[in-house]
Structures are given as structure tokens and as C-alpha cells.
Amino acid sequence: MELARAGRPVDHVIADLTDLRAGDVKWSEGKTFGMVYDGGPGVHDVAEQAARLYLHENALNTKAFPSLGRIQSDVVGWTAGLLHGPDTVAGFLTSGGTESIQCAVLAARERGRAERGITEAEIVLAESAHAAFHKSAHMYDMTVRTAPVLPDWTADVDAMAELVGPNTVLVVGSAPQYPQGVVDPIPEIAALAATVDANCHVDACMGGFVLPFVEMLGREVPPWDFRVDGVHSISADIHKLGYAPKGVSVILHRTRELRKYQTFVFSDWLGGFYASPNLQGTRSGLPMAAAWAVMQHLGVDGYVDLTRQTLDNADAMRAGIEAIDGLRVLGDGRLHLIAMTADPDSAVEIDVFALGDALLSRGWFHDRQGPPDTLHSTVSNSNTGVIGQYLVDLALCVAEVGTTRTADRSTNYATLE
Question: What is the domain range of residue 330?
């Protein structure tokens, strides 16, 4: 393909983009469980206005754009407050959960190198921890030591303890983990990290903008944030159930001293002094400003309302799934993540991947995952008003699929093209 020599009118270009979207999932109809999170018309409006204001601004140098420095400071501070950070907490905005995790892993490696002389750094985590930790270890030439999960899908801390050693620089817990949506035993994981003076990172990319408001609604939430002694860093995605547009996340460190280990500083350059707080150089001001605007627009009360609706949606969805013979939900069923699988104790044999294909033919999109084979849903306010129809379609699809088994066993959470 070659770029055309002559340019095209704006309306023609936009018409083509509109046509290209025809085959995309219809997240605005509430039929997509994840990837895009809809906070409602007011959130759309304030985010889009902020995006237009900051479409071209560059956070590479906040001396040129001091407003972006203020925006970053505000959003980091607000998030730290929600996560009960002490006055010493410091952090940065990133492009998403993967980058936040990469920053936490890098900081742990660099601290281990500087303070403990570790040259062959290791990470200890459960098999449920996000793949971004493995990606980070690959990038930073680190070794990952993986422990199994318990029957309730939480991290097996005793098994993790067998893997911790003198080269451990990071021990990981999730709040909640993605596959089954359960919260790991963070106090025990933090205590384990402390035995070797390693960092403890809590991956709250999925829960950072849910768990604080779940607690405010009076539901039980296990300890997971900076109130837990020994938690060094937390990642939390605003572009998930913080309802900001893609891509913006927060990485928080308990102290500035810990944060410095993720920052790259270089002065031996003809271009002058260079410092980069995370993996990007140039950073778009658009998602940062949109996140600031959405958080200001919603406030704590707005987030509590959205979380209440999210939990209502998830509770109704879980109950409906459990009522269908042959299906079950994995995990403790308290939060917004649902892993639907075949019930091994049922006489009805259902291939959930074939079931997912049938649901997709009706417009319902789930991620496939495993083992075990499951259809994954991240429920949010986006699904308000459609859960009833989803459960009707689910029952119809179960009957339609019967004992059919699809040959396609892929579980793609990926971009390969």
C-alpha cells in the first residue's frame, strides 16, 4: 500500500472511518463486557470537551505546559487519597495498566540493584497475576517465579514463600486479579515481601476505581491498599472503571524515594538534561486532561453511584448464570468481574467457547480465557439496562448450542497484526 499523493476532503475521510467501525463491537449498546466503559452522557461531554482543549498538548515537558503538570499532580493526589496513601505518596500518570506495571517492576529492579546489589533480579507472583508482569520481566531481563492459586483462585502465599529468595526484588498481589475477579491476601503478600526487603506491588488496575467505592457502599472489602503496611506501590487504571477515555492510568509509590527508581535521568547529551518519569517520552495531554475532567465531574458521589449500578448489574448477571443448568461462576462473586464456565457437577455438558460464539452472533462480546475454559466479563455501568436481555439470550444460546463443541480453542487477549 502507498499513501495517496493527493489529499482528500475531510468529510470523505471521516465517512471512511465511520464505515471502518461497522464491524467493531457495539460497546455503546452495552453488549460488550470490558474494553470500553461508559460513564453516561455527562461523562462523555466533559471528556470530549477536555479532549478538544488538549488534543495537541505534549506532557514531555511540563515547563512548556505547566497546566499538564498541575493536572498530573491533581489526579495523582486524588487517586492517592482514594487509596489511603500517606502524605509521602508520589506517582505519575501513564498510558495504561501495562505501563504502570512496567514502571513498578522497573522501580523494584532498580531499588534491588542500588540498595541490595542484586544483578539477577526475580519477581514472585501467582499464576493469576497479569501478563504485563511477564512482559516487564522479559523487557528488563528478570526472572519470574510463578506460584499456583488456591481453590478459591486467590494467590497461594505459602507456595509463593517457597519461591522467595535473595534475588527477589518484587512480590506481587492483585486487587482484584483479572481472570476470576478475586482479591489476593495482600497483608500476607506484603509481609512475605518484607522478609527479603523486596518491593510489594498491588496491581489494582481493575480495582483501583472500584474497591474504594464498594467499601463506601458498605460491602466487605479485604485490606489491599496503602493501609496495609509493606505495600510499596499500587497501579490503578482511570480508563477502566474510572470512566476516563483511553489511555490513562496511575502508578503510585509510598514515597518519593521509591518513585525515583522508575525515573530515567540522563545529562550526557548535546540536547541538554533529559529526564523521563515513565516509559514514554512524548506523552499526549489529551487523556490526562480528560481524566482530570471526568474525575472532577463525577466526584466521589458520582463514582459511588456508578459503582452501585455496576454491582447491581454484576449481581444480577451472576444470579442469572448460576440459575442455568450446566453453567457456573468462578470465584467469590462479590465484585464486577465474572468468569463463566461449564459446571463440572452438572449432567449438562456445555462448551462455553461454542456458547460464546452463539452469544456473539447476537452481539454479545466476551473474552475467552483459560484454563479452565471460561467466558470473561468485566461488568460496568455500560451494561445498565441490558442484563435482563442478556440472560434471555444466554438461555436461548445454551439451548441452541446443546452439546456442540467448537474446534476453535483460542484464547486471544492480544494484538498480533
Answer: 300-401
